[in-house]
Amino acid sequence: MANSRDFDTRYELREFPFANGADGEPTPESLAALDAIGFGFHESTPKPEARKRKVNELIADEAVLLGAYVRKPQPGSVDETWPAGTFSWFPKALSWGDGTTINTQAISDVTVRPTERRRGILRRMMTQALERGVADGYAIAALTASEGTIYRRFGFGSAIRERNVVVKRAKALPFLAPTSGIVSVVTPEYLVDGVARQVFDRFDERSIGSMVRNTGSWPLVLGTLGRDGEPAKDTRAAVHRPADGEEVDGYVTWRMVEQSGGQTGIEIIDLVYATDAAYLSLWEFLLSIDLNDVVKYNRARLDDPIVSALGDNRAYDIEHEEDHVWLRVLDLPAVLASRPFAVDGSLTIAVTDALGYAAGTFRLEVTGGRGTATKLSDETDAAGADLALDVADLGSLLLGAVSPVSLAAAGVLQAADPAAPLLLRSMLQTPRAPHGITFF
């Protein structure tokens, strides 16, 4: 690992918002950063109009780019214009599931060129970004990770897990209880003019852990554009309405794909619902479509009610489960004050934080479902606290998806009294499992 002096000798950090120039075209540095990000994620080179659209989407998201640039690039190398490391962030509201939110510093586009690995680029970019986040008033940072071992060292904890599931059509129906409402097939274009976003807003409001979507994700999930930037040709859509009204309260987009073993299946692209009735009815509709063997969904929540609705619950297979949203506490009192709690109580919590932002000993008091965290000391007094843990594990606990009792059993949360993790688990309990269908 290069030391600070070596880093500053080799690299220059530049921070700037994605932007267009006076001529209305993306600035050269914005396009170069976009190309570097695409290289890092093995994406094909988009056409000029797609690159311009992407920059405009990032402008709409208020994205800031932090790049590490080689001071003395080799002749002819991309380092003459591209950053060797990329890192972006933008504001993104995270839902507490009760109609309230907290603004997060949403981190994205983290890449380091293979030729520049192990030179301290990621650490310097992360350190500068979090410092800027604190200065800008963010109480919490968030990210979704392409790898699961990178971000704990920076204080991030996995707060939501999601599942890839497959439901076998032959065993699924009929459901054990009747569904309600009306499902109608629509064109993807029908969803574009406000319908999909209105449903998502209602889903987001009731779903703890949900986050607002990036501007650029909407054409992809609604099927108006494919990942190549060209119009998608294989997307289908349907909506659900309650029987006593015309307002759409759920929608799904899907495509037909070949599954392993020669099976034909439906792959759900986007499934958004404001009510449980809409969710069940849209699943029943998908499982009723002829000429398909299975329905595959890659964003299922851990407490999926479909398991209990199926006529044969062995029709439901979990193919894969992994981390989704990671959270990093920057201002512990502000985060806990914004969150609703299920049970009143009080606990003293000692937090270690290698970067210092959330380190200390705090007293959490919850009354009437709202919490106040008071800092008792800048020191981490594990011996005098009810609970002691690292800031990364605090991030994992925040949404209620991870149990303090489980962390105590794993040895990463210390409690002198076994009743303390039980109390915290009750305090953090949520009506539904934390769930997010937003990637960034």
List keywords for this structure.
about 450 residues; alpha+beta; 7-stranded mixed beta sheet; about 30% helix
Description of the molecule:
By secondary structure, this protein is α+β, with helices and mostly antiparallel strands. Helix content is 28%, strand content 30%. The chain has 14 helices and 19 strands. It has helices spanning 4-10, 28-40, 48-60, 121-135, 169-172, 188-192, 195-206, 217-222, 276-287, 306-309, 332-338, 391-397, 404-410, 419-428, and strands spanning 11-17, 64-70, 85-95, 101-112, 140-144, 157-158, 161-168, 182-186, 236-241, 250-258, 264-273, 294-300, 316-323, 325-329, 345-352, 360-367, 370-377, 387-390, 413-414. The strands form 3 sheets. Strands 1-2-3-4-5-14-6 form a 7-stranded mixed beta sheet, with helices on both faces. The longest helix has 15 residues, at 121-135. The protein is globular, with a radius of gyration of 23 Å. The two termini are 28 Å apart. The mean pLDDT is 95. Keywords: Acyltransferase, Transferase. Belongs to the acetyltransferase Eis family. Acetyl-CoA binds at residues 110-112, 118-123, 146-147. It holds the Pfam family Acetyltransf_17. Residues 209-316 form the Eis-like acetyltransferase domain.
